[in-house]
Structure formats: structure tokens, C-alpha cells
Amino acid sequence: MQFTVDHTDLAAAVSYAAQSLPARPPVPVLAGLLLDAAEDTLRISGFDYETSTDITVAATVAEPGRALVSGRLLADIAARVRGVVQFELAGPRLILSAGSARFTLPTLPIEEYPQLPQPGPASGTLSGGTFAEAVSQVACAASNDTAVPSLAGISLGHDQDAGTLTLTATDRYRFAVRTISWKHCNLDADHTALAPGKDLLDAAKAAAEAATLDLTLAGTPGASGLFTLRDAHHTTTLRGLEGSLPAYSALFPSEFAHTATVDIAPLKEAVQRVALVATGNTPVRLTFTTDGTLVLEAGTSDEAQAVDNVTTALEGGDLNIAFNPGFLIDGLNALTTEAAEAVDFHFTSSVKPAILRGHGSDDQGLRYALMPVRLTG
């Protein structure tokens, strides 16, 4: 095997493929990236049994061939070298040269590397940027608790009649829902599947620049248990999760007793300031008043205290409610992803979930249901 490739293309490709490298590989060969040079292209692949990444870039191939080398080491080298990078396989060693730099890398036994999973047919197509935005908005609500694996997932639900894909995530304390339009190619009925949240977020970010992204939902014909994200040069597969997320329709009522509109930027800054004294699980208390003021407070009389206020427009009577400040900021950050400048808070009562939506957003915009913290005394 002998080929040359531009250092920019190499660095980007290795960085993409390295996403699937396991932190603690169950077998040594899974720490490697597979290089396959043929027909003026370089294909780089990674796999950890749960996630696979595959990318092709242009290369000048003098002698086709394949090699398996340490992925982390190759990623470090690719990020540092400049100019045209030359690869040559010499027995069990891969020689990499760029300018005055030369590296000799031991290869891993390629015959022990597992077969990469075969992507299923596309369930539908959509913009990579649109999909990445939607995934990032709901991902903040996914759980980090490994005791309930399904809560660490993001649910993707296809609505055949509406031609939409709805993404949802929850950790029981908040529920994020975002709907996007897409063109479904091979689906003739509603279908819902659960993807691993962190892996889906990484894959969606990597595909954000794709003008057209083919998405395969796990459990659809030909897909087996795999999700696939694929564009002209990148392919990622993710093994779907078992189970499903709780039903959420009851969390989003259509009628509310109070509605408040607040500019996001000053509200987020005020929450961050008062949260400085909200140690542990201490909530931030919000008092919405009809005189156009939202007062934020945190702390207790025995400890440090903080108070701040911002302007609000309130419909309905005064309301006192408290939230986990981190969860509240997550929701505000998610709303700014869709360029919302103000947030609408919808309340039924101070003990029921509050619904956060971007001011003026349509039915497909993010809906973020946030459970309040009960106040005592």
C-alpha cells in the first residue's frame, strides 16, 4: 500500500472516524482505524461493536492496500503534520512522511478486525444542519443515569401522514420535544425507535454540513437494529436501544393559567448570577408579577443569598415557582439554538410542569417541559 493525501483532508477524516474508538477497547484491534486505499480514494473506518464510522477522502494511490493502525496515535499525528502526507506499508509497519517529519507505526492484525455493519436503506432524507440542530436541542434532557439505559436515549418518531420526524428526550425532570419535516423514502407507516443519545449527538454534529443526509431508523425493513446517518462521503451506524421513552402528551396541555414572556439573554445571565449561591440541589425561585417584574432568588437565611430581577410580560395572576437552575439554563440554551430571542413560559400551576417555548415559534419548534422544585415554608 502506498498513497498520498492532503493533511487537511487527512486530519478531518481521521477526526471523524475516531469518534467510534472505544475508551477501553474490549479487544486490542478495536483501538485501530482501518485504512483502505483504492481507486484514488482513502477510506478510513472505526468500529466498537456499537458505533461505526466510515469516511472517504480523495487520495493519490500508487499501490492499493489496507492497514490497521492505532487510531488515537494516528489522530494525534494527523492533527500536527502539514502539507502532503505520504503513507507506505512496509511489512508490519506503516511509514508516514510529511515534510521533514517521518513516523513509523506498528500495524494491528487486520485479519482480526470485525466486519463493519452494513447500513440499511434510507428511511428518509433531510438537511444535516436541521437534524443536528434538533438533536442538540433535545439532547440536554437525556439522562446520564446508566441504571435506566432507555432514558439515556433520544427517541425518533416518524409520522407518516404529517411527513415529520419528532425527536424526544427525558430524564424524568424535564422533557424536550422537537419536530422537523423530512422526506421519507422507504416508510409506509408510523415508526418510532430509540437511539443512544450521546452517540446520536456526536454523529449529528459531524453531519451538520451535509446538504442532504440519509437517515435510517432502527427497526425498519433492512435496517435491523441499526440507525444510519449517511451523506456523500460519511457514514455512521449506531446500534439502537431497547425500550421506549414515557408518553409525554399529558405534559403539554393546550390551556394555561399563566403565560410570561422574557428575553432569554438577560434572564440567563440573571439565573447564572443568583445560582452562584445555589449549592447542591438548591433551586432558584422565580416570582412573576403583573407589574412586569420577574424576581429571581436563591439561598437561605442561614447561608449566602442572592436576588436579581428582569423584565417580563405576564398574563394571568402572580406566580411563585422554583426550578433547578442548571435545567432551566439548559432549556434557555436549547431555545437559542433555533434563534429565539425571548422565551414564553406557560404555567398551569406552581406544582405542575412549566412549558418553555421560543416566543413566536411554530408547532414544530422546541417544547421543553420542566418540572418545578417544590418550595417549603
Automatic annotation (TrEMBL):
<dbReference type="InterPro" id="IPR046938">
    <property type="entry name" value="DNA_clamp_sf"/>
</dbReference>
<dbReference type="Pfam" id="PF02768">
    <property type="entry name" value="DNA_pol3_beta_3"/>
</dbReference>
<keyword id="KW-0808">Transferase</keyword>
<feature type="domain" description="DNA polymerase III beta sliding clamp N-terminal">
    <location>
        <begin position="1"/>
        <end position="117"/>
    </location>
</feature>
<dbReference type="Pfam" id="PF00712">
    <property type="entry name" value="DNA_pol3_beta"/>
</dbReference>
<dbReference type="Pfam" id="PF02767">
    <property type="entry name" value="DNA_pol3_beta_2"/>
</dbReference>
<dbReference type="InterPro" id="IPR022637">
    <property type="entry name" value="DNA_polIII_beta_cen"/>
</dbReference>
<feature type="domain" description="DNA polymerase III beta sliding clamp C-terminal">
    <location>
        <begin position="251"/>
        <end position="374"/>
    </location>
</feature>
<feature type="domain" description="DNA polymerase III beta sliding clamp central">
    <location>
        <begin position="126"/>
        <end position="246"/>
    </location>
</feature>
<keyword id="KW-0548">Nucleotidyltransferase</keyword>
<comment type="similarity">
    <text>Belongs to the beta sliding clamp family.</text>
</comment>
<protein>
    <recommendedName>
        <fullName>Beta sliding clamp</fullName>
    </recommendedName>
</protein>
<keyword id="KW-0239">DNA-directed DNA polymerase</keyword>
<comment type="subunit">
    <text>Forms a ring-shaped head-to-tail homodimer around DNA.</text>
</comment>
<dbReference type="GO" id="GO:0003887">
    <property type="term" value="F:DNA-directed DNA polymerase activity"/>
</dbReference>
<keyword id="KW-0235">DNA replication</keyword>
<dbReference type="InterPro" id="IPR001001">
    <property type="entry name" value="DNA_polIII_beta"/>
</dbReference>
<dbReference type="InterPro" id="IPR022634">
    <property type="entry name" value="DNA_polIII_beta_N"/>
</dbReference>
<dbReference type="InterPro" id="IPR022635">
    <property type="entry name" value="DNA_polIII_beta_C"/>
</dbReference>
<keyword id="KW-0963">Cytoplasm</keyword>
<comment type="function">
    <text>Confers DNA tethering and processivity to DNA polymerases and other proteins. Acts as a clamp, forming a ring around DNA (a reaction catalyzed by the clamp-loading complex) which diffuses in an ATP-independent manner freely and bidirectionally along dsDNA. Initially characterized for its ability to contact the catalytic subunit of DNA polymerase III (Pol III), a complex, multichain enzyme responsible for most of the replicative synthesis in bacteria; Pol III exhibits 3'-5' exonuclease proofreading activity.</text>
</comment>
<keyword id="KW-0238">DNA-binding</keyword>
